[in-house]
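Example record

The entry below shows one chain as it appears in the dataset: sequence first, then C-alpha cells.
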Amino acid sequence: MFDLIIETPGGSGEVAEDIVKLIRERYDDVAIIVPGWAKSAGTIIAMSCDEILMEPASALGPIDAQISREGKTFSADALLKGMDEIKAEVEEKGSLNQAYIPVLQGISPGELQGAQNALDFAKVLVKEWLVKYKFKDWNNHSADGSPVTLEEKRQRAEEVAAELADHSKWLTHGRSIKISDLENMKLKIIDYSKDKELADAIRRYYTLLKMTLDTNIYKVFETLESQIFKSIHTPSQPPSQRIERGNVAIIDINCPNCKSVYKVQANLGIENPVEPGHLEFSKFFLPSFINTSTHAYYLKLQNQHYIKIKNAR
C-alpha cells in the first residue's frame, strides 16, 4: 500500500496523468490522504486511488478544464455551454443577436475544439481510473449483495465524471467539494477524523508540511540519510547580501598617528562577510583595555599603537 498525502490548488491534467502512471507502475494499492484540499488536477489524481481519506475540513474540487485566452482564464465547460445557448437561440429565432458578433469573431473553431478536448480529457481520465482502481474491489451491491457488473461500474464512473466536470452545478472552479458531496455521488470516502490516533498523526504531519512549504522552500528531496531543499529567493533578498545585522558591530576608530578614521566590523558569534571599506576586527586588533579615569576604550593595533574608540562610554 502506498499512501499519498496531497495538497494542491490544481494544475495540468497532463501532469496529473504522468504522476498517476508513475505511482501505478510501482504500487498496486494506493490511498490518497487529503488533510486540506486537492482541487482540479488534484481531484483527478484522487479518483485514481483505491481509497480516499478526508476529514470534514478537507475538500476536492470541480475538474472542468480551465482555458486561458487574452490574459483571462475561464471554464471550458462554460464556454461550450455558452456557445450551445447561442446556437439554440439562433435556431429558435432564425437570426443572430448582433451583440454576439464581436464575441464570435474572437473565437475560432479550433479553440472551441480545444476546449472540448480539454474537458473530455479530464472526464476520460476520471472514468478510466474509477473503473480500474477505485471500483476494482466493488464486487457486490451494499443494498442486496447482488454482484456488480463491469457495465454498472462504467455507468457509475460516467455519472461521477460528468458531475465533477459540470460547471453549471458548481458555478466556480474553486468550489469546495466536501465528503457529503462525494458520498452523494455514491463514492466511498474514509473520514479519518473518526479515528483519533490516525487523525492526530495526519494533522501533525500536515502542520509540519505547511510550516516547511509555506516559505520560500518549494521542493524537498529526502532520503533516510539526507535532505535537499530547493528554494526561491526574491531579488529584494538575494542570499549573497543577507547579513544578520543584530550579530554585527560597526565601530568608528581614529588613528592618533595618521589621523585617519577607520570603520571596523566585529562579528558577534556568527561569521558574516566583511562589508566593503571595513576592516575585520579579529585580524587587525589585539586585546584592548579601558582607562578607568577617563572611561575611554582603547584597542591595541599589531604595530603597538593604541587607538581610542569614539563615544566608547
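Notes for this example: Residues 183 and 189 are 7 Å apart (CA to CA). Residues 239-244, 285-292, 294-313 have pLDDT under 50 and may be disordered.
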